[in-house]
User: Fold Trypsin from Micromonospora ureilytica.
Amino acid sequence: MQSVGPYRFTHMLGTCPVGKAWAAIDEQGRFATVAVLNAVAANTPGWREAFAGTANAMSQRPDGQAFTYADFYADEPWAAYPAEAGPGAEKLFRALGQEYHPVPTEQAGSPKQGDSPEPVSGVPRQPSGPPQSVSGPPHPVSAPPQPVSGAPQPVSGVPQPTSGAPIAPWALHSGALPTVPPAPMPPPADDAPQSPAPVSAAPADPAPYDPFRAPVRRIKPSEPPPRRTGLWVGLAAVVLVVAVASGVGIWAIAGNEQPDPYVPPTGASTTGSSTVAPIEPALKPWAQASLYSPEEKALAVAAPSLVFVEAVFTGYVRDARTNALVHPQPVSFIRRCSGFLLTPDGHAVTNGSCVKPAEGHARWLAVDALARMLVQGKQLPAAQISSYIAANLPKVRFTGVEPGTEPTSAVYGQLNRAKGNAVEEPAIKAEVVRSLPEDSGNTALIKLARGNLPAVELNASASLAEGSPVRILAYATSDVVFRNAEYRPQSTMVTITGTSQRGPVSIYLVNEDLGPASHGGVALDSAGRVAGLIYQDQAAPDRANRAILPASTISALLGEAGVANTLGDTDKVYRSGLDAYFRGDSSSAITQLQKAAAATPDNLLAQAYRQNATERQRLEDASRQQSSTLVLVLVGCAGVLLVALVILAVLLIRRRDR
Assistant:
């Protein structure tokens, strides 16, 4: 049967127009149901995303069906569900709105009764033998011999009947015997046995007994059965083939000194042999890309450096002509976006409009926040928010406490899982070092107030081209309530659909995005380096984050700020551990990843991959032990077969000597 990832299919459970549900078993013997979207549906726009989105949505519901593993980027995307949790594969297809057809259980039919063989009627005819010679002096015969009445007496052996007329005694001494044609015999009846026909003739004088004549064998003994030499030779050949095949199998297993390096990890949540608590990173690269693929490794390299950025702006809305307060209370609005660390001491790059929006954009955000405050205080109908903004935006300014001052702002960064409105640990205070305006790159360099952080490498010469795929990585949320929403890293493959211009800067347009907080995220090259920054498509009506700013613009920003993109020693150790892990060297991977995890506690992926490597090494050791046992069993079987072959040869030799 076919297999996907760590699962081997055993039988089909059901079908639907876009895929199939399979029963499967993993390498630990655990049963699962696997939903497989067929290639035609996967290549139809929207189906792959619907399949992945539905599976994720089912997993995130409190009472939903969570999948164990999934590969949404395979030619035929699939999702695996534990069998004990119910028909997860069937639920996924039904959640997609498909008509699911279970496979009926096969019933064994009764075997057909064969016809009994027809009996053969009649008595088989015996061949006629030659006439028997008689020795002794000749005696004339005056009449033909008399018939013998009565039933024939049975004798041992096969009787040799004589056909034709009797030979005269003196003819035996006169030369060759005359040839007498046999008398024709009527065909035997089908049902009744034949009886000898009486012959009427004149009585004859019996010949006198000659005591010196040679004895005649009147009963011919049966011939011995043919020797079954061919059968014995065939059996010997079969035994020899089995012995040779066993030897080849032993050689193949014994010669495979390197265990299979592509044993899938059990995941960070199922390290049954570990005595420490399993690590649950915010992003599991092995669940968002094919196992041990370059895409998984690229995600593992870059994901620890991803930063969730939140900026809070507070000020007052004033009349632009008189500086009078439009509302006595201060107005605050929040900007949330993604970023990525480029140095171990906390320098990160993000979207400029997120942490330092232009004056016109900040004013619009402030008036929008004020309108929503008025709606909350029942001073403005919710349906009039847009008209309120349009009427007041040209007439106001957004300032600090004093008319000529800037609004205050506070920037925070979070690693791994993040939560909105967090100003205490694990949130890290940050400040804006430098920013580029919207028409010159719209990027910003911030500095987190913490060191020893995981960084990512910048590829300023990365090649992006229309029509090529690229993987993006950013923070996203599925929460509906904005204020305290939870965010975690997400990744997807997008396609570059075209190019656009923002002042002197060229940007690349893509076909998908990861949500409102994804601007400032990273576009990766195949080695996990930064090829670009996720950017707002400001020409689009929804200003969605479906554009990529080339990494060369980020390199220019770092040059203006006097900051160099550098990897720390821990980052290099972490990458060495990943190299060992992905080439199958579990022992080296455990050593290197343990060092990286101890030196950089914020890098949860270093701890997760170390646990995966430990679990994989345990499985490899168990596999080697099973292989050794199998070798011993095969050696014993081969020895038994060889002994049987020798005994068979001795028996054949003795039989021939007889």
Q: What stands out?
A: Confidence is low (pLDDT under 50) at residues 107-204, 261-274. Residues 3-102 form a domain with the Phosphorylase Kinase; domain 1 fold (CATH 3.30.200.20). The CA atoms of residues 130 and 422 lie 120 Å apart. The first strand starts at residue 3 and ends at 4.
